[in-house]
Amino acid sequence: MVVQVVLVHGIRTSATMWRAQVEHLANRGNPVTAVDLPGHGSRMAEEFTLESAFETIDSAVRVAAARGPVLLSGHSMGGLLCIEYVGSEEPPPVAGFIAASCTAIPRGVGLATYRVLARGFDSLPDRGMWLTDRMLDRILPDETRADFGAGGYALDAQDMALRSLSVLDLLAALHRIDAPLWFVNGQYDQLRVNERLFMRVARHAELIVVPRTTHHVTVMRPRVFNAVLDVALTTLEASHR
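Structure tokens predicted for Alpha/beta hydrolase (241 residues):
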């Protein structure tokens, strides 16, 4: 059976951030679904809640699982949500999992600092988008720069989403994950803070660190991330023959 892929974006962005991966997977022959979480992208008018976010992920996974084994990949906030989802007490039908840029526990001083910075950006003219655009222009290649924000930026959902993440029990979820797991981090990613802890707790994890790369590993190094997808897909294809 052909491996199906489900992609979950990070905070503020949308399914469009995965366009390079969607194209790669289509060329490879693997069906792919890139979801929009509530409050993001095509669902910008909706309120973000953890319950609706998990429902979105679960619905996409179960539809895909009816056609074949599922590789789930989440970036940043999407990765944190997927850790909790894949490691739930009743495991969902996920055959393999790529967790990108999300090896940090979203609690305490780190989360509080992130929320303060986000509110500071929000208070700037144009809600700080001029500064965000300048930064993204510098670090993202032309091939993915437009894709990253093509679905719009979920500025209104940001603080609610950040606040919601504090209830996740990621270490317990990681310990329960029984599927092949790949952590993918950029060398300069600020969310590498609990990387070693995550690797100790997760029982079936491999760690891939992409040199000279920041938090935006999927769009900053799309070909490298596509190669990681190929590794995961080849692994799952071999185990499901």
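The two ends are 8 Å apart (CA to CA).
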